[in-house]
Amino acid sequence: MIKEVLEKLKADKPVLAPLHIWRAYEVLNECKGSPLNELTAIVSLIRKVSGLDSVLTEYDKTVDKNFQKWVFKKQSGSIKFNEEQMQLLRMIKDYVINSFHIEKEDFDLNPLNAQGGLGKMWQLFGDQTDTIIDELNEALAG
Fold first, then answer.
1. pTM of full prediction above 0.70
2. How far apart are the C-alpha atoms of 118 and 106, rounded to whole Å?
3. DSSP alpha helices (H): ranges in the chain?
4. pLDDT digits (tens, 9 = 90+) for 69-81
């Protein structure tokens, strides 16, 4: 739906394109950094306008920060991720930055399928796979 909104804005109201609005916030010194692309810019703008973020912030930085908090919280308990698990979790985080959500079917797509897809996720996380996917979706969007 976000992609549809972006395309509609660009076609019907190009002056409202996310990068134009982002530049306006830059002029007002009310933003941090620059977005990766228009799609992540519109998510950042929605988060700012809806009150989720007090300052316009790059969506990828928000996801990075939320990922770090989630990992620290998980590892402060009984779970300790090994390097192979962390590598896959980082790939999921990077995937979410550009697609905003992850489903089991997404493991059939690049780059996740090149690393073993959902089978690899099950191998590394076992019966916690569904829980981890759900938690990441909730935590990363924060």
1. yes
2. 9
3. 2-12, 18-27, 38-49, 59-75, 83-99, 117-125, 129-141
4. 999 999 998 889 9
